[in-house]
């Protein structure tokens, strides 16, 4: 009986543990609303210190700020907030539970090909995947609906439209693929689209693959676009981090490179690692912090791979889109400064047209503006580099759904609606490119 009880307890513990890595049991999110300038300043100080994971950053007085705190941080954080006269409210009482709820659907149906009713990982490398019941697909002989495998199949089914190239390898050896969709020849104007730069933002690769699928499997509806514009897709540009968020730590953000110095932590924030005003704002040189900019500009091999493709394609590429979550924002440079690029009005106009079409699909509202002015200053981002160095005119960072109800764990049932509305925005942009260039 004793053994039986022990087994039951063990099973319960295993099931209740969302993932290895970060321990989420007892983690909560606390929300506060700064009412005075002093309180706002205190929150910004806390945000800059990088000790806590801010899920909604301090911006203005009267605007709610959400902070995730692990069990061991809750007391200390509550005390710190109360010292500033803030009244923390618990918004998500059980982060572990929230993560579990989303994960329960993943792979559970043993899908044979990629679909947009669940989230899918990138590519399984040899290390022995274990974890939750929901992830058994890794370990078993079931054909896992991995993104890379799906892309290869799609490209071979549609050779008239698709060119698939492996353009590099991640730190841990995952292939990084570029899928070109179009039938116009290489000199046509291009739109470059990437996703998955931040591991835990799962709606990003899901939406990007949805866009690919729409263009390719419904190509007759988009014939005019496909013959005048080339689409370049890289759905998961931080594949190690992305897969790690499936197997080990659902809330992982960075890459998975080894610490550059002893005692450091793994990985860097891939969107602080680009060589344009690197390390100037909204970034840390502490490797254990989520927005660590890396040991040097382009220290992360995955970003070198994307940089090289953007460089190769820069003369024809007119638009660069990079998908994140969450917040529902369509943002343009600069991210390193509050100043605006001199052609900002052109970028603003196209963004407004795009989000207008997006809203018409399901009523979802997106905010438009420069990323510094819309969220916060953060340098070393891919969007700033694409504009400032590669010279691509229309660069956007898109924060997909939602506004902070589900944070990074957007329910799988919202993948398709997100994909549909984002596709409407992409069509506006593609039509603009077609008629302008
Ligand atoms: N949430 C994104 C990030 O933190 C926004 C990036 C906007 N672009 C920028 N260059 N700061 O990476
Ligand atoms: Zn992001």
TrEMBL record:
Localisation: Secreted
GO biological process: proteolysis
A family per Pfam: Peptidase_M14
Residue ranges crossing the lipid bilayer per the database entry: none
Peptidase M14 domain mapped to chain residues: 140-433
Keyword Iron: no
Cofactor: Zn(2+)
Matching SUPFAM superfamilies: Protease propeptides/inhibitors, Zn-dependent exopeptidases
Molecular function via GO: metallocarboxypeptidase activity; zinc ion binding
The keyword Nucleotide-binding is assigned to this record: no
Keywords per UniProt: Carboxypeptidase, Disulfide bond, Hydrolase, Metal-binding, Metalloprotease, Protease, Secreted, Signal, Zinc
Main location: secreted
Annotated GO CC locations: extracellular space
Catalytic residue list: 399 (proton donor/acceptor)
Record function comment: Involved in the digestion of the blood meal.
Family listed: Belongs to the peptidase M14 family.
Protein name: Peptidase M14 domain-containing protein
Species of provenance: Scylla paramamosain
């Amino acid at each position: 009986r004793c053994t039986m009880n022990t087994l039951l307890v063990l099973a319960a513990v295993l099931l209740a543990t969302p993932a290895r890595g970060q321990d989420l049991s007892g983690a909560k999110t606390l929300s506060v609303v700064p009412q005075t300038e002093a309180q706002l300043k205190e929150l910004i100080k806390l945000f800059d210190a990088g000790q806590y994971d801010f899920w909604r950053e301090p911006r203005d007085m009267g605007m709610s700020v959400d902070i995730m705190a692990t069990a061991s941080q809750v007391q200390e954080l509550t005390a710190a907030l109360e010292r500033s006269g803030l009244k923390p409210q618990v918004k998500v009482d059980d982060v572990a539970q929230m993560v579990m709820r989303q994960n329960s659907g993943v792979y559970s149906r043993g899908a044979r090909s990629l679909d947009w009713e669940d989230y899918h990982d990138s590519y399984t490398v040899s290390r022995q995947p274990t974890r939750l019941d929901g992830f058994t697909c890794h370990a078993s002989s079931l054909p896992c609906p991995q993104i890379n495998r799906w892309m290869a199949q799609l490209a071979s089914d549609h050779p008239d439209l698709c060119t698939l190239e492996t353009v590099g390898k991640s730190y841990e050896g995952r292939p990084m693929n570029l899928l070109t969709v179009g039938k116009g020849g290489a000199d046509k104007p291009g739109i470059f689209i990437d996703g998955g730069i931040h591991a835990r933002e799962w709606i990003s690769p899901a939406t990007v693959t949805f866009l690919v699928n729409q263009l390719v499997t419904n190509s007759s509806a988009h014939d005019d676009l496909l013959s005048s514009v080339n689409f370049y897709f890289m759905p998961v540009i931080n594949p190690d981090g992305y897969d790690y968020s499936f197997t080990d730590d659902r809330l992982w953000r960075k890459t998975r490179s080894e610490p550059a110095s002893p005692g450091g932590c793994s990985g860097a924030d891939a969107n602080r690692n680009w060589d344009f005003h690197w390390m100037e704002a909204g970034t840390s040189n502490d490797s254990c912090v989520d927005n660590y900019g890396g040991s040097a500009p382009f220290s992360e091999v995955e970003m070198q791979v994307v940089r090289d493709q953007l460089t190769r394609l820069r003369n024809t590429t007119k638009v660069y889109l990079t998908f994140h979550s969450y917040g529902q924002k369509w943002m343009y440079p600069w991210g390193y400064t509050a100043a605006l690029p001199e052609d900002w009005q052109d970028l603003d106009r196209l963004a407004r047209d795009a989000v207008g079409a997006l809203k018409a699909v399901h009523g979802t509202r997106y905010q438009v503006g420069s990323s510094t002015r819309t969220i916060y200053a953060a340098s070393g981002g891919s969007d700033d580099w694409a504009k400032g160095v590669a010279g691509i005119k229309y660069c956007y960072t898109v924060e997909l759904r939602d506004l902070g109800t589900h944070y990074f764990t957007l329910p799988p049932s919202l993948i398709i609606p997100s994909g549909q509305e984002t596709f409407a925005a992409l069509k506006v942009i593609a039509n603009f490119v077609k008629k302008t260039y």
